[in-house]
Amino acid sequence: MSTKDWLEKDYYKILGVSKDAKPEEIKKAFRKLARENHPDANPGNAAAEKKFKEISEANSVLSDPKKRKEYDEQRSLFGGGGFRFPGAGGGRPGGGYGGAGGVNMDDLFRNATGGDTNISDLFGNLFGGTTTRRTGGVRNPRRGTDIEGEATIDFNQAVEGTTVQMQTVSDAPCAACRGTGAKSGTVPKVCSTCQGSGMKATQSAGGFAMAEPCPDCRGRGLVVEDPCPECGGSGRGRSTNTMQVRIPAGVNDGQRIRIKGKGGAGENGGAAGDLYVLVNVRSHPVFGRKGNNLTLEAPITFTEAALGAEIEVPTLNGPRVRLRVPAGTPNGRTFRVRGKGIRKSDGSYGDLLVTVAVQVPQHLSADAKSALEAYEAASGAGDPRASLFAS
User: How many domains does the chain have?
Assistant: First the structure.
């Protein structure tokens, strides 16, 4: 993602959260907006598709602590997002890079150092040094943007792993001009003002040599005299891809999975970005989950709890297992069935945790009531609440 995007886009505003929002708030806001604007839920709706892309881009930055810190620092350094390069968001056709008339700050730094991405060299040139010019208008490769999608799977699929089909929308080189920004049959020309460096050196009143974007090419180093009618000279278009995504076994609800190289296409030979898939897991009617262990609540009768019994309980995708309940088992006791849980990364399995729930009968026949009264008289049990009043 370019520095220009970070400076000009208010990702907090896009997600509708405050700048000090906690990760949980950001996640909740993104999931709500993603559901409302997902292309699958809004077929043919270009506005919803554009909004989905914006919120996915915002979430990819704000949900990553490292990216969020860099984003906040850069916006603070350059005026909280109010800083724009000359011509950003407008200008003559073909003058932009990645947008109408926009200038990419990453390229600005690289241009100032002749292709070297070390920003310290740029500031060194500002104080008496000379700006190295790149030759031939050659632009450095740029990595594609990261994109984010969402998938909802069943409980069993989360445990065993599955493959889902996803449709993603991302930026890509314009198909008509192949990313050059120039009309078919023409090519961009090296800017004669800056000789392809994208920078122009000026002398300030204090005698300092200042490097600033070239006013003629707006920092691009190239001039498109006959812009592509499809992209307006930006060289970028929109790509919709359908792909099969593998969800690994043991994925948790709300987990983000990174699919390397399946994001937006790179520029000038740069690597593609990554795809981040937010996984939602549907609940199971019987089983729950605690880490790599499965959980299950098994009802037992009062007599089974008092006298002891052997009961059968289900496993997720295997045969039933028998479980011994000792005499005098209290309500809520948990038993462990080893190896019947979720497969771990090392190949071993978690356990099945069975919690018994003693069922109290709602209706008693006359015989059953008499039998219980006889039991109470025969047991000779004292007041079980006596200890509450001991002090």
Answer: 2
Which of 21, 52, 83 represents a domain boundary (last residue)? 83
Q: What mean pLDDT value characterizes the chain?
A: 78
* Burial track 141-171 (b if 16+ CB lie within 10 A, e otherwise): ebbbbbbbbbbebebebbbbebebebebbbb
Side chain identity, residue 193? T
Of 83, 113, 133, which residue constitutes the final position of a domain? Answer: 83
Q: Convert the pLDDT of each residue in 46-88 to its tens digit.
A: 888 888 888 888 888 899 898 888 888 777 765 444 344 333 3
Residue-range definition of the domain harbouring residue 60? 1-83
Closest CA to 62 of 12, 133, 102, 114: 12
Cα–Cα distance between 338 and 348 in angstroms, integer?
Answer: 11
Task: Please answer whether residues 107 and 97 qualify as being in contact, where contact means their C-beta atoms are separated by less than 8 angstroms.
Answer: yes
Please check whether residue 255 lies inside any domain of the structure: no
CATH, residue 78: 1.10.287.110
Closest alpha carbon to 19 in 55, 73, 60: 73
11 lies in some domain? yes
Q: How many helices (H) and strands (E) does the chain have?
A: 10, 15
